[in-house]
Amino acid sequence: MLFYYQAVKGSGEQVNDSLEAGSDMDAIEALQKQGLTVISVTTKQGGIKSFLSSKLSSSASSRKSFFSHVSSRDIVLLSRQIATLFEAQVSALRVFQLLASQAEKPILQETLAGVVDDIQAGESLSKSLEKYPNIFSNFYVNMVRSGEESSRLDKTFTFLADYLDRTFELTSKARNALIYPAFVVVTFFAVMVLMLTFIIPKITPILTESGAELPIFTQIVISLSSFLVDYGIFLLVFLIIGGFFVVKWARTSSGSMAVDYFKISLPVVGDLYRKIYVSRLADNLHAMLSSGISTVRSLEITASVMENLTYKNILLEAAEAVKNGSPLSASLSGHPHALPNILIQMIQVGEETGELSSILERLSRFYQREVNTAIDTMVSLIEPIMIVSLAVGVGGLLAAILMPIYNVANTV
Q1: Which fold has domain 1-60?
Q2: 341-355: per-residue pLDDT in tens?
Q3: For residue 274, with 0-12 CB atoms within 10 Å meaning exposed, 13-18 middle and 19 or more buried, which class applies?
Q4: Alpha helix (H) residue ranges in 44-105
């Protein structure tokens, strides 16, 4: 089969040609053996089927989405593709033209096309990306601006891809770790409610008509069942209305602050949240400072990408303190509930030795390992605990009903 391809040589020269191969993957492999960076392979001349390099060929084959939302994973892949093309000495204009032509999501295609128009009009890449804050964060734009100033855009986009990949993996792992216990808890309450509203009411007449004295736990179960049967609908309406107002309150500034503080104050989950936020804080500051961005601006940018208002306010306060001449370590101190003492001490050591960026990188890696360990431990403990809790809850409920029936049967 004849395949048409676009590729880039190591010298930066673009090649448009064709070759015979059994499949598109065979064609890509043959081109890569020739030392070419593959941009596209198609059976029709002028068509686009993009494969940006051997290390992207597997990850870039994401499924086509029916939604316009641009996920974190999309930005990771986009950054990796941009970095690969920049490393191949492809011009910025050509990079975004290629990516716009092969983007699967309409919103991403429109955004990249807009970037192409801006570059053609003479605008800088960072200035163009800044127009799309819903896709490119303040952190992302400032890193690109730093890369432009240092003429190291290829390394900047490689770093961004690595950084976003780490952040995405960390967040996904934490979120997935909480899905299973949430599912078990919902299942537990659903089973209990079904038993109390459908099964217990049918058994209750047998117990009450027997005349036997019922254990206190059985009486509690019967009373709870009667309450749910008689007033369950009102309780459901109350919970829905209450939930609506709680969600509305949580979206206010005071409510968001309270919810975010509550997250990091929980006994077990709070410790996990704190480690995630501290890891992200250290990683962001390391990225900013190592790119030559000022400490004050680095704190402000890091605050803008933090998802927890407690940490955001701490960083903004620290930025004001640094403006007034306070060292970074002193500016971040005084918040033991959010920032561990070891973090402050290590930052102080970094300031004294002039290795602050390096220290922050080590802290970030340390807390990433801590998060991974905490998640693995939590998952290994939650599963048996949840199963035992479910068994005890359902078993206790059945025992409260079946034991009196057994006693009645023995007295007959």
Answers
A1: Ubiquitin-like (UB roll) (3.10.20)
A2: 989 999 999 999 988
A3: buried
A4: 72-87, 92-102
